[in-house]
Amino acid sequence: MLLSEIIIQRIQEEGPISFHDFMEMALYYPEKGYYTSLQNKIGKTGDFYTSSNLTPAFGAMIGRQLEEMWEISGRSNFTIVEYGAGTGVLCHDILNYLKNNKEFYDQLNYCIIEKSPVMQQKQRSHLHEKVSWHDSIRDISEITGCILSNELLDNFAVHQVVMEDKLMEVFVDYKNGFVELLKPGEQALTDYLAELNVVLPKGFRTEINLGATEWIKEIATSLKKGYVLTIDYGYPSSELYSERRSCGTLVCYNKHTINDNPYVNIGEQDITTHVNFSALCHYGLKNGLMCCGLTNQANFLLGLGFKDYLKKTLDTGQDIISMAKQESFLTQTLLVDMGFKFKVLIQQKGLCNKDLLGLKL
C-alpha cells in the first residue's frame, strides 16, 4: 500500500488529521516515510545537498570549534552528541580532524541519536571508532561536552496555523484529493505565541514547531556542563513573523527542485520549515541554557579559519586551474549560497561565558 493510501485510510477512519500528523507520517512512517525509506536523499542523486557532504573542511571547522569548547570545559572527558547524523559523513570528518589532537581524542566519546533505521545502517557501515548509537539522550548519562545538530530541526513535524478572529490550526481531510480545513488552535499553540510575545495579524499563516521546544528542554535537562551547537536555516521571531512571510516558510525538495505542495510525492519528497531561533533561545534559557550567540554559517566558518584551512587541504595533485575552480565553488557555496541562509546558534550551561572563535565575527 502506498503511503498516501495509508494516510487516506487513517483520515477515512478517524476524520481530518492535523497537518502536524500528516507531516509526521509523510516523513517518518515506518519504511515508507521520506526519512525511513531506502531512497537516496543527499547528494547528486538525491534531493538536496548539505554542507557536510560538500567538503571535509566543514566537519574540520566544527572539530576546531569543539576543540575550543573542550579547552574551556576543562580538558577532561568530553561527549559529543549528534542528533540526526544523516549518512554519518559529518561525524567521520569531525573525528578525522580531531585525531590530530591525541589528548582530546583519547578523552572523547561520540554518541549518535538517529530516528531513521535506514540512516543508522548507513552510519554503522563506516563509523567504527569512538561512536555509539542511542535511542534517546536520556540514555546517555552525565553529559559534559557538546550537543550538535546540523539541519535537524527544519524536519520536525510542525503545526500550521492561520490567524482569523482567533488562532486556527490547519487540518487535512480527503475528498477526491487532500484538502485543508481550519479548527480552533489548541492551547499549547496560543501559549507558544504568547511566550514569545508574537502577535499575528489577521490572515497570517505560519508554522509552530512545538517539537523543537520539547527538544531544547530535554537537552537542557540532560546536559550537565557544556554547549549546544545548532546549525539550520531559520530566523529570530522578528523576521520569521514579519509581513513578507505571511504565507509561512514550508518548502518541499524533490530531485533538487523546490515546490510548496506537501500533498504530492508523499514519502518521496522532503518537507521542511524554517527554525525559530528566538524560541530555542527562550525555552533554552528557561531551562538553564545561556545563549552565547547567533551568527550565520559564513561568519562561523570564517571565524574558525575556513579559507586558510581549505587552501591547505585541497587536492595538491590537481592542476592549478582545477584547484582554483574547486576553491571558488566551495567558497561560493558554503560562504555565500549556504553561508547567509544557514544560522549557527551556540548555547551553554555551567560554564563561564568566554568568547568562542565561531562567534567572533
Characterize this entry briefly.
Helix content is 38%, strand content 25%. The chain is an alpha/beta fold and 361 residues long. Strands 2, 3, 4, 5, 10, 14, 15 and 16 form an eight-stranded mixed sheet that branches. Strands 1, 6, 7, 8 and 9 form a five-stranded antiparallel sheet that branches.
Describe the structure.
By secondary structure, the protein is of the alpha/beta class. The protein has a single domain, classed as Rossmann fold, CATH 3.40.50. Helices cover 38% and strands 25% of the residues. The protein contains 14 helices and 16 strands. It has helices spanning 3-14, 19-28, 51-54, 56-73, 89-98, 102-106, 117-124, 187-195, 210-222, 237-240, 277-286, 297-303, 306-313, 320-337; strands at residues 17-18, 78-83, 108-113, 131-134, 143-150, 159-163, 167-174, 178-184, 205-208, 223-235, 251-254, 257-259, 270-272, 275-276, 290-296, 342-349.
- Which CATH top level class fits? Alpha Beta
CATH architecture designation:
3-Layer(aba) Sandwich
Rg from Cα: 21 Å
CATH topology: Rossmann fold
Strand content: 15-25%
Q: How far is the N terminus from the C terminus?
A: 52 Å
Mean of all residue-level pLDDT scores: 94
Low-confidence stretches: none
Could you spell the SSE succession in H and E letters?
A: HEHHHEHHEHEEEEEHEHEHEEEEHEHHHE
How would you characterize the largest beta sheet? 8 strands, mixed
Number of β-strand runs: 16
Percentage of helical residues? Answer: 25-40%
Number of domains: 1
